[in-house]
Every structure is written in structure tokens, then in C-alpha cells.
Amino acid sequence: MPEADKADVRGIDKAAILLMSLGEEEASEILRHMGPKEVQSVGTAMSGVANVGRDKVESVLDAFLNLLTNQTSLGIGSNDYIRSVLVKALGEEKASGVIDRILLGGNSQGLESLKWMDPKAVAEIIRLEHPQIVAIVLSYLEPDQAALVLAALPARTRSDIVMRIATMEGIQPSAIRELDQIMENHFSSDSNIKSASVGGTKTAAEILNFIDSSLESEIMDSVRESDNDLGDEISELMFVFDDLIDVDDRGIQTLLRDISTDTLVLALKGADGKLKQKILKNMSQRAAQMLSEDMDAKGPVKVSDVEAAQKEILAVARQKEADSEISLGGGSGEAMI
């Protein structure tokens, strides 16, 4: 198989080809050990696999077998080995939370089951619990899911919950026991969760990044009324649409491949002039001209529609950063208008 063809196969596509080559039973057994987002990513890749040549399948299988052959049993299962592998794979910052959950025993059946549930269902389960318990649960969920759960909770509790998330440095054993009991009541889980490092201003910022703009402003205003310094800390860690100016040209080009013209037109109606120019210069001359014409022809648009389009693009950007396709700059914390 030519080297160029091999380079065209992404890691996620290799996983899809491998699973489809194994058969239903073996593939389902592997998927059972994956998290919700991993299953979704691999499942999407599997649905897109078509007309894969025999050479490509054999190349993927050979690579997998070579990987297994080169593995040794030395260090497998030790905490140092697990920590080293996760840090190399995810980076120190992203790996820290995963390491805590694995090595500190925080990956309980009850909490894990929440990740597979509809956000509104999760909100219904925890809405009457103590705000500290709610904060712990939201800190454990993925930011996008946590944002939907937060939006579904009573408005009067949201800012309090965000402040608790932002000031959380770890989970106290008493809170863990209480949460464990709640999960046991709902899911008949008897797992024993130990202390784990979750929460903090970064977690709060990540959750707010995914929440509706009007709710985001409402929550942040309330947080600042209670603790202005904490509100500023959270804002500085948030990534807003105009912060895309800090993404390099290659990253912008990668991002634009997955954004529809209609969404881009709406989003740029409320964007900074410098960001508009950066977007346009990373398009072909013809595409940039057509986009400019579409923006002029669009006329006045609702602020809510602009914010929704910007949120959609930011969601794609964050996913591409998570997939190591692009690198996002630091948030400016400036308010959206």
C-alpha cells in the first residue's frame, strides 16, 4: 500500500475499520469499555466507512498487530505506567482529571451512568439536591452536557452552583458519601468513591462556554454580584468568539472546512472587524468574495441568531481542539454584544 494512502487514514478511522473487521460480538465488547463521547466518535466514523479497499484494511490490521507485538508486560497495571501513558496521550492538564478518576477510584457506576443520560433527566434527578452535590455532579460531567443540565435547573440556583464549581478544590469524603448514597438510590449502585480533584474556575468556565449566551450573562452577572474577583477569574478562562483571532491561519482553515456558509454569515455579523478579515484571508478569493456578498445581502439579523451561530462555531472549535486538530488561544473574557 502506498505511503500516501496510509497517511490518509486518521486514527479514528483506523479504529472504525478495526472494529468493523472484528465482527459484531468482539466490536460490541470493545465499545462497552469506552465512554459516551468515544462511542459517539467511533460510531460516527464507522457509519462513514465505505468502499474500504483490502489493502487499507490489511494496513490497519498490520499496524494494530505490530503495536500489540511491541507491547511488553513490564509496567502494565502500575500507577506510574498509567499516569505516564495518559499524560503523553492527553497532556498534563487534560490527563489530570482522568488520572484522578482512575487512580483514586472516582469512576463510579452511578456517576458514569449520568454521562449516558439526557441532560434534562439528569437535571430532574439532582434539582432538589443540595447545591454542593449538584456542583460535584456537574463537575464530573463533560462541559457540554453539564451546560445543558445547568440550563435545565431552576434559575435561582444557577449562579450559586457555578460559584461552588469555581471554588471547588476537591471533593470532601462527606460529600462523596452523600453523592454515593444518591446514586445508589437512583441506580442501585454500591460503589465506593474516593476523593477526586474536580471543579475549579476552569471547569466553571468550560461549562459556561457551552451554555446559552443569555443564560451565561445572567449567571455571570449574579456571580459578580456575590464575588466580583471570582467572576473575573472565570471570565478570563472563558473562550469567546472573538478569541478565534488568536487561532493560527492553519487552524482557521481547518475550522472553516466544517462550518456551513449560512452559519458563518450569521456569526460574522456580530464579529470584530479584525476577526472578519482573518476569516476572509483564510478562504479562497472567490469564496471570500461570495461570503462578503452574502453578509451584505443578509441585512439586519437577531442578536440571538448571531449568538447561536457563534456558539455553534465555538463548539466545533472546541471539539477540534480536543481532537488535537487545532489549538485555541486564551479567552479574553470580553462580553458578547
Description:
- The chain has 337 residues and is mainly α.
- It folds into three domains: 68 residues, no CATH class; 134 residues, Annexin V, domain 1; 82 residues, Annexin V, domain 1 (Orthogonal Bundle).
- It is 69% helix and 0% strand.
- It is built from 21 helices and no strands.
- Helix 10 runs antiparallel to helix 11, helix 10 packs across helix 13 and helix 18 packs across helix 21.
- The protein starts with a helix and ends in a 15-residue tail after the last helix.
- The N terminus and C terminus are likely disordered.
Gist of the model:
This protein folds into three domains: 68 residues, no CATH class; 134 residues, Flagellar motor switch protein FliG, alpha-alpha superhelical domain (Annexin V, domain 1); 82 residues, Flagellar motor switch protein FliG, alpha-alpha superhelical domain (Annexin V, domain 1).
